[in-house]
């Protein structure tokens, strides 16, 4: 057995270089503290993204799949998700999930922070929309967000760049929604529609979710990280943290991690910030057991790993006679929040967002069509295929998932990653409220598509491979017996341990979480900076 | 393990002859030669025949079938780490077809393939994915669909701006969001 390598201490150690880790690193850089980020994955090379090759669609199903159990890259860890109807999507590397996300960038609504007060369910957040508003704006500027001001579904907020094009699909959706008199608005997108901060504008590659070779999509490897590194932050890749260590005073003392060759290292730190997402963070905390913390670190409440929230997705597809955008253009287009705010007459509480998507490439058209029986095998294949190619468009409904303690991330007793670290196990049940919301979304989505001109409609709900959003497993709150971190992200139990990812969400809202994850990361960083003199009191 | 030629002079028994297609203006997708084929000889024949039954050549649309030599070579080269799963799927095909698929006559192959398709198991889904992902990136097929035979990057695509005047009725609505105390 080789000796463990010990590194010089740092002031701040960030675990995870994704959406939140990058934002908190950049914000803290102006303190001139010694800041180090450990990332289990690697840097991505955009020149190798799938859209640069002829096998661009196939690789989305393989080495650029958003499911880690399928992708199996060296930086990945397996996830036991057999006990969940929704499978985990993530990416492990510099940029984290932003490398493979679509770039939808809506904010939460003010009501999302007050669900108990307004709707009598779950819990209110200990912070509110107004608190996060300036951090949303700063994050929009750093990420370079396109959109359009004036959406009646939101309090007033601006946009950094003009929206992505409507295209033929957006025109059709808008016609349908206007026929029904329902809300729609251009999507807030982390897609540069103009050259911005060293990034080239979008050229409609149509393949945002497998990495943007153009650099138009805002993944944090090309937004926050270059600025943070220029400001002095160190980033060490292929460093997989096994556990957070603690000292006799019950404070975090650093981490033990494995390098690419599996060798062990110890990195001491004065402050540890965890940014490993709603599955990776509870996994790490539960793996950091000790005599003093026998149930895992920061887990005196017993809530680490509980209250896992996905967003149950419904996908609704329309089949059109007219040719639409197909494989061209960013997936993002428009959204509708007609059914976002609670109306109990609908049979469920809370609500959802429709996000409209343009179309599919030639391979995915074939696979989905043949799998669904819409494209036959044999002589009639080509005619049927051409009836669908570039003529499918639709939407997903992102349904708010309410926290339930029986939905958990625990440690699998057998499954481990390549370094022998216990892997996460997901146990998740879809609630009755979510089922009713999905049914409503499918019915209303079908109406929209038919009003838009679709001659046929199909759906999948819940979307099995739709676990993009991982939230709630280390929730924030004022009561240490009912939450894991305080209202500014510091662990109740370990006063130099912070969490900044989707784990801290109290509820999930009905929109994509990245904008809020990063706003919270900036807000926590700001609190750390303001409280440096008495940070551990 | 026996091998089959990646570019056979004549198709295996029962296979559809490749469609004559005009010469390409640019070379097709480069398919690296395989040092070791991922499947046994009979399995290769079965897979090729099945691919041709899934997507046959068409004079009407001027496209080759998925059993075309270039496309099938791409398919074999793409199996990679899925070789065991593909072999299992082909064993399932044999079982449903009532015997070694490659050795059956054309009618029995068609009937066996139909049983395989309608079982909708993971094996059929895997083979559909493999065949589709190689077929629909072939230059000739892409051109027949009106696409340029190229990857999306670096040229990108054009998308119409759309009719933003459609937002007028939405702008005219009152606010939808709720105040939060």
Give the averaged pLDDT of chain B, no decimals.
Answer: 84
Instruction: Give the N-to-C terminal Cα separation of chain B.
Output: 73 Å
- Helix/strand/pairing class of chain A, anyone? alpha/beta
> What is the share of helical residues of chain B?
40-55%
Topology:
The complex is a heterodimer of chains A (537) and B (181).
Chain A: E1 5-15, H1 19-28, E2 35-38, H2 56-60, H3 68-71, E3 80-83, H4 115-119, H5 129-143, H6 167-180, E4 185-186, H7 224-230, E5 234-236, E6 240-246, E7 252-258, E8 264-274, H8 277-286, E9 313-319, E10 334-336, E11 352-357, H9 362-371, H10 381-388, E12 392-399, E13 408-416, E14 422-427, H11 432-451, E15 456-460, E16 497-499, H12 514-530
Parallel strand pairs in A: 1-2, 1-8, 2-5, 3-14, 8-16
Antiparallel strand pairs in A: 4-10, 6-7, 7-8, 9-12, 9-15, 10-11, 11-12, 13-14
Chain B: H1 41-54, H2 69-79, H3 83-97, H4 106-119, H5 122-135, H6 139-144, H7 168-171
Helix pairs in contact in B: 2-5, 3-4, 3-5
Describe what you observe in this structure.
The complex is a heterodimer of chains A (537) and B (181). Helices cover 23% and strands 18% of the residues of chain A. Chain A has helices at residues 19-28, 56-60, 68-71, 115-119, 129-143, 167-180, 224-230, 277-286, 362-371, 381-388, 432-451, 514-530; strands at 5-15, 35-38, 80-83, 185-186, 234-236, 240-246, 252-258, 264-274, 313-319, 334-336, 352-357, 392-399, 408-416, 422-427, 456-460, 497-499. In chain A, strands 1, 2, 5, 6, 7, 8 and 16 form a seven-stranded mixed beta sheet that branches. In chain A, strands 4-10-11-12-9-15 form a six-stranded antiparallel beta sheet, with helices on one face. Chain B is an all-alpha fold and 181 residues long. Helix content of chain B is 43%, strand content 0%. Chain B has helices at residues 41-54, 69-79, 83-97, 106-119, 122-135, 139-144, 168-171. Chain B is elongated. The chains are: A alpha/beta (537), B mainly alpha (181). At the A-B interface, α2, α6, α9 and α10 of A face α4, α5 and α7 of B.
């Amino acid at each position: 057995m080789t000796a463990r390598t010990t590194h010089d201490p740092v002031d701040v150690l960030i675990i995870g270089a994704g959406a939140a880790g990058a934002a908190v690193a950049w914000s803290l850089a102006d303190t001139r503290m010694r800041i180090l980020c450990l990332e289990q994955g690697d840097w991505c090379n955009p020149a190798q993204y799938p859209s640069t090759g002829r096998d661009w669609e196939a690789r989305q199903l393989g080495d650029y799949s958003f499911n880690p159990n399928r992708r199996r890259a060296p930086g990945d860890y397996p996830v036991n998700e057999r006990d969940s109807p929704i499978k985990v999507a993530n990416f492990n590397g510099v940029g984290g999930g932003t490398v493979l996300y679509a770039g939808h960038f809506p904010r939460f609504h003010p009501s999302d922070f007050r669900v108990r007060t307004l709707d009598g369910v779950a819990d209110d957040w200990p912070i509110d929309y107004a608190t996060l508003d300036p951090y949303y704006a700063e994050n929009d500027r750093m990420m370079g967000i396109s959109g359009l001001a004036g959406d009646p579904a939101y309090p007033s907020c601006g946009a950094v760049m003009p929206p992505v094009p409507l295209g033929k699909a957006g025109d059709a959706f808008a016609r349908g929604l206007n026929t029904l008199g329902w809300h729609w608005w251009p999507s807030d997108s982390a897609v540069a529609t103009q050259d911005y901060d060293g990034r080239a504008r979008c050229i409609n590659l149509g393949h945002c979710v497998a990495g943007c070779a153009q650099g138009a999509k805002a993944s944090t490897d090309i937004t926050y990280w270059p600025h943070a590194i220029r400001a002095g932050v160190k980033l060490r890749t292929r460093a997989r943290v096994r556990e957070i260590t603690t000292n006799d005073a019950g404070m975090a003392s650093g981490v033990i991690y494995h390098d690419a060759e599996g060798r062990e290292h110890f990195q001491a730190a004065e402050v540890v910030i965890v940014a490993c997402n709603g599955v990776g963070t509870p996994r790490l905390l539960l793996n950091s057991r000790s005599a003093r913390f026998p149930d895992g670190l920061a887990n005196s409440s017993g809530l680490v790993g509980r209250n896992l929230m996905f967003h149950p997705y419904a996908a609704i597809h329309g089949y059109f006679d007219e040719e639409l955008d197909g494989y061209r253009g960013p997936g993002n287009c428009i959204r509708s929040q007609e059914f976002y705010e609670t109306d109990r007459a609908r049979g469920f509480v809370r609500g959802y967002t429709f996000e409209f998507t343009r179309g599919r490439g030639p391979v995915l058209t074939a696979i989905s069509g043949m799998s669904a029986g819409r494209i036959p095998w044999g002589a009639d294949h080509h005619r049927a295929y051409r009836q669908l190619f570039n003529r499918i468009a639709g939407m997903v409904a992102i349904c708010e998932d309410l926290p339930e303690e029986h939905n958990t991330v625990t440690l699998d007793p057998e499954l481990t990653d390549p370094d022998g670290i216990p892997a996460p196990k997901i146990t998740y049940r879809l609630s009755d409220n979510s089922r009713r919301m999905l049914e409503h979304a499918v019915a209303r989505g079908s109406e929209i598509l038919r009003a838009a001109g679709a001659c046929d409609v199909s759906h999948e709900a819940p979307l099995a491979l739709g676990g993009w959003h991982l939230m709630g497993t280390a929730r924030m709150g004022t009561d240490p017996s009912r939450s894991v971190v305080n209202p500014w992200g510091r662990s109740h139990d370990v006063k130099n341990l912070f969490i900044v990812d989707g784990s801290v969400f109290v509820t999930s809202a009905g929109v994509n979480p990245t904008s809020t994850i990063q706003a919270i990361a900036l807000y926590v960083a700001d609190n750390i900076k303001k409280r440096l003199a008495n940070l551990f009191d | 393990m026996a091998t089959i030629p990646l570019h056979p002079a004549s198709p295996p028994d029962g296979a559809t002859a490749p469609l004559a297609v005009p010469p390409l203006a640019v070379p097709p997708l480069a398919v690296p030669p395989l040092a070791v084929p991922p499947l046994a000889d009979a399995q290769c024949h079965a897979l090729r025949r099945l691919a041709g039954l899934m997507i046959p050549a068409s004079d009407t649309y001027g496209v080759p079938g998925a059993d075309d030599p270039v496309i099938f070579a791409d398919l074999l080269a793409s199996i990679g780490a899925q070789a065991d799963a593909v072999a299992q799927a082909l064993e399932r095909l044999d079982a449903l077809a009532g015997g070694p698929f490659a050795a059956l006559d054309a009618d029995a192959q068609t009937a066996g393939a139909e049983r395989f398709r309608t079982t909708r198991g993971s094996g059929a889904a895997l083979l559909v994915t493999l065949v589709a992902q190689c077929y629909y990136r072939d230059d000739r097929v892409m051109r027949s669909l009106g696409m340029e035979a190229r990857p999306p990057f670096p040229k990108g695509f054009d998308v119409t701006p759309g009719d933003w005047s459609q937002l007028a009725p939405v702008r005219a609505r009152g606010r939808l969001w709720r105040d939060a105390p």
